[in-house]
Amino acid sequence: MMTLADFVKEKRNEVNLTQEAFAERAGVALTVIRKIEQGKENLNLEKVNQVLRMFGHTLAPVNARELSKNEKKE
Question: Which residues form a coiled coil (predicted)?
Answer without folding.
Answer: none
